[in-house]
Amino acid sequence: MNIVIIGAGQVGGSLADSLATEDNDIVVIDNDAERLRHLREKLDIDTYQGNASHPDVLENANVMNADMMIAVTSSDEVNMIACQVAYQLFHTPTKIARVRSASYLDHPELFSKEAIPIDVLISPERLITEHVYSLIANPGSLQVIDFANGNVQLVALRAQYGGKLIDHQIREFADHMPDVDVRVIAIFRNGKAILPDGDTVIEVDDEIFVIASMQHIRVVMSELSIAEKPYKKIMIAGGGNVGGNLAGLLEKERYQVKIIEKSSDVAGYLAERLDKTLVLEGDAADEHLLQEEDISNMDVFCAVTDDDEANILSAMLAKRLGARKVMALVNRPSYVDLVESGIIDMAISPQQITLGGLLAHVRRGDIVSVHALRRGAAEVIEVVAHGDEKTSRVVGRTLKKLKLPPGSTVCAVVKENKVVLPSHSVVIEENDHVILFLSDKRYIPVIEKLFQVGMGFI
């Protein structure tokens, strides 16, 4: 596939990195020559320097031959105009744009062929807000992913002392939870992925990815770690798009929410907009303010300003002052592992969350969703099976007969909203949703090809 990526920042660079290994021809456009040089040295891709909203720049970057253009610069306006030019002058089939401003997003009628012809809108702030909300709604989780319209849930958690299944084999799950269908799809131990089988023993500090129906996931989590009480009191540092929207979601679910915002204008706006949230004007790294606002009794402190250092320092301070769980939004990839190895419970990576939202629209075949695990170390994808035994490589076959690439496994099959955990005898039928784990992203094109409908496969 020929793909033009506009913007060589963290999201654009990560996207190019992910797609360049998957048999795609990539061109990246950016104004910054140093960023482009770095990408050329690291990846086997083409680059072009210039303003991507200018027709001559797009033409010189060969947009007329692109199957897809993805605009992810930091400017909404550049992204939107680039899509307009690509549509009007070069008839680019698929145009994806990152749009951050709620002022634009609140008017979906703007984004049509008659107005601004963007096929897929990606809003990082909304994706991040939903991600953080899911972590708060599922205490003890490191990552929460819904599949098949919420019928299936994948949760990442860390195995802890006190968990009933610590130092036990996975096959013993059935004895502890006889009425629960659960699958351990991956374990990350000392930073390396393990594809577990029944003999695999769960160890303390393992990062475990489990999949089960939504009604059973809490029971599964309680077997692997110390069951955590639901969160109730939440303090948010930063009243921007993420912080303000997160507070709005939480207050509707009867959480007790406080939000700290430096800007008096933003704090005033939030005070008018939010009904039940206590809005405080001040610095979230002010020890006196945190103590005055009862930080030691907060269940979660969540730092989501646009400043990595401010988020990290305020979260560390909140933890030292007694907050039960602390989260920090961290944009720099090099900071993420460093932060989580310290006293901060969770580092939230905007670029990985955004990347997952983008990849679902880039993949070939009927891929419903794509999610990066462990900051891109692996992926879980949900794909719909189409065709019949003559036109499909998967329909009518048992899971045992699927020719999956190395490091890949079927996590679950959803048949008409019924979750079926994998066994060799499960047969894939048309319109089944198949959820797969891939420890090596290089094999994603193999999965895409496997699920594509064609002729003469038998």
UniProtKB/TrEMBL annotation:
All residue ranges annotated as the RCK N-terminal domain in the record: 1-122, 231-348
Domain RCK C-terminal, residue spans: 142-226, 368-453
InterPro entries: K_uptake_TrkA, NAD(P)-bd_dom_sf, RCK_C, RCK_C_sf, RCK_N, Trk_Ktr_HKT_K-transport
GO CC term (a single one): plasma membrane
Molecular functions per Gene Ontology: potassium ion transmembrane transporter activity
PROSITE patterns: RCK_C (PS51202), RCK_N (PS51201)
Coiled coil: none
Keywords on record: Ion transport, NAD, Potassium, Potassium transport, Transport
UniProt-recorded name of the protein: Trk system potassium uptake protein TrkA
Species of provenance: Leucothrix pacifica
